[in-house]
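Suppose a colleague, Dr. K., hands you the sequence of a protein chain of 270 amino acids and asks what its three-dimensional shape might be. Before reaching for any lab equipment, you can write down a predicted structure in token form. Begin with the sequence itself:
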Amino acid sequence: MRFTRLFNRITSLAIGSLFLAGATSFGYAQSTSEQPFQRANVDLELVLAVDISQSMDTDEQRVQREGYVAALTSDEVIEAVKYGPKGRIAVAYLEWGGKDEHFIVADWAIISDLKSAQVFASKIAEAPLRRVQRTSISSALGQAVAMVMENPYHGTRRVIDISGDGPNNQGGAVTRARDAALSSGVTINGLPLMLKAESISWQSMLHLDHYYEDCVIGGPGAFSIPVRSKKTFGDAVRMKLVLEIAGLTQEKPRVVRAKTRQPVKCSLFD
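The predicted structure, expressed as tokens, is then:
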């Protein structure tokens, strides 16, 4: 009940902020005369980059897939899309593992209403599950940025939503890939998955949520939502999508590093 009230409040703020912004701060994307070729204008270009490394067991992968499908077709997400200045977003669903192991499960498509969301979500739901070795966040970010730069859409904002259950351990420095994405005008938000029991998981030893805060996310309004149980995964994804679609920004960042902890050494596993 407490989480539901919080979520409803965030949803209301997100939609209200997006509606008010429509008259002023979104004017740039309305003109395509200076573009080298005609692009379809959207409020947001969003890559959902999802970890499928071997540390994710089959049950966790299934929960992950179902969570994204349910969130994309939820009333809250559809309402957030409709209240945008243009009333549509462009989205792609990418699965990733080790270096250069990328699988576009659902390619770029426009979501503007429930029907288009259901068509996109069905591609995710129907794709076979796969697992690969290693965890290359840096390679995944590179692929996601390329997808943003090469797609046929022109969004007011560009966001990579990356989820994962471990640190970067292949494919070059994660901070270098992050900084390259930020220099391209892409914001990175995180969904660190901390689903294993503390007694058997290095996620807790590493404090994966801190790792994502310090080493992975960045850009205007960037934020990270850690997921600590399978039961809360769907709610976390839905809240995250509403915030990303609304494009809320605050004077203070949503992620504030705790003063009582030391910064994470990002290169520890690179």
